[in-house]
Design goal:
This protein is α+β, with helices and mostly antiparallel strands and about 160 residues long. Helix content is about 25%, strand content about 25%. It has a 5-stranded mixed β-sheet. Strand 3 and strand 4 form a beta hairpin.
Amino acid sequence: MTPSEPQHSPPSQPAGLPTPEGLPKAEFAFPGPLRDRLVAAILDGSKTSTTGLVVEYEHDGEALPETGSRSVVVDSEDRPVGIIEVTGVRVVPLAEVDLAHALDEGEGYADVAAWRAGHERFWHSAEMRAALGDPGFTVADATAVVLERFRLVADLRP
């Protein structure tokens, strides 16, 4: 979601642990406080799912995630802090997001309505609308979303 910046050298890892070389970036939200909270939740194990918009993948010319694929989680400073592996992917209408998925996002939502309200605030933000090139972008019950489940396979923090 942000322009590419020079890659930082990853911290050295003990033998046998995955390293970030050659893996795509996983950027959660935009750099700043929200990304910092999401990354912390991934690293502490409380966040094991995320939701994206199919239209965002299409706009960015990116393929949808695939089970088994790995990516490097970057923090707000674009530093690699973890490696995640996709364990499941579903594309559903926004109205069909279930409680288990909402809870596994690790953001403290108690129900799907609160999860949706939080996500709509993000998706309707000026920053997201600018990223999509659509100042009037909105979501509705039928909006296609990508429900991604993942697991942390490596913590790259020193």
